[in-house]
Amino acid sequence: MGRVKLEIKRIENTTNRQVTFSKRRNGLIKKAYELSILCDIDIALIMFSPSGRLNHFSGRRRIEDVFTRFINLPDQERDNAVNFPEPHYDRSPGDINCEIEELQQEVNRLHQQLQMTEAQIRIYEPDPSKMTSMEDLESTEKNLVDTLTRVMQRKVDNNHDTS
C-alpha cells in the first residue's frame, strides 16, 4: 500500500499543522545538507514554526556569511535570484486574506532580520562620529582585530587547501 497524496493546502488543525511542520522541517534540513555537500554550495534556511519559533540551517558557512553574500549582490542579481511560486486562483477570499496576513507578518520578520543584519554590518563599518568614549573605540578596535584575524586565518587555510 502506497502513501496517500496530500492536497497541498494549509492544515487547519493546529496540532496536525505543528506535527507536520516538525516532521517536514527535518526532511527539508536533510535535503539542504545533502544539496550543500553534493553541489558544493552555500545554503541557508530560515523557518518560523507555526508557533513562531525560529529554526535555521546553514551548510559549511555561518548563516550570517551566506546572508551577507546575498545582501552584497547587486539589486538586479538579487531580484532575479528569488523565485516565487505561481499564484493559485482557486482560493477563497478568506484563504487569500489569511495568506496576506501571513505575508505581512513575514515581511515584518524579514524587515527585523534586515535591521539586525545591517546593525551587524555596521560593527565592521563604524561611524567614527558616533564613538564618544575610549571604551567605544577600544571595542571597535577589538572587533576589527578579531575580524582581521579570522580573515587572515581563512586565507592561510585556503592556501593550504589549494597546495
From TrEMBL:
GO molecular function: protein dimerization activity; RNA polymerase II transcription regulatory region sequence-specific DNA binding
Main subcellular localisation: nucleus
Alphabetical keyword list: Coiled coil, DNA-binding, Nucleus, Transcription, Transcription regulation
UniProt-listed InterPro entries: MADS-box/MEF2_TF (IPR050142), MEF2-like_N (IPR033896), TF_MADSbox (IPR002100), TF_MADSbox_sf (IPR036879)
GO biological process, one term: pollen maturation
Gene3D superfamilies: Transcription factor, MADS-box
UniProt subcellular location: Nucleus
UniProt domain MADS-box: residue ranges: 1-61
Entry's Gene Ontology cellular component terms: nucleus
PANTHER family: SERUM RESPONSE FACTOR HOMOLOG
Designated name of the protein: MADS-box domain-containing protein
Taxonomic source organism: Lupinus angustifolius
Classification of source organism: Eukaryota, Viridiplantae, Streptophyta, Embryophyta, Tracheophyta
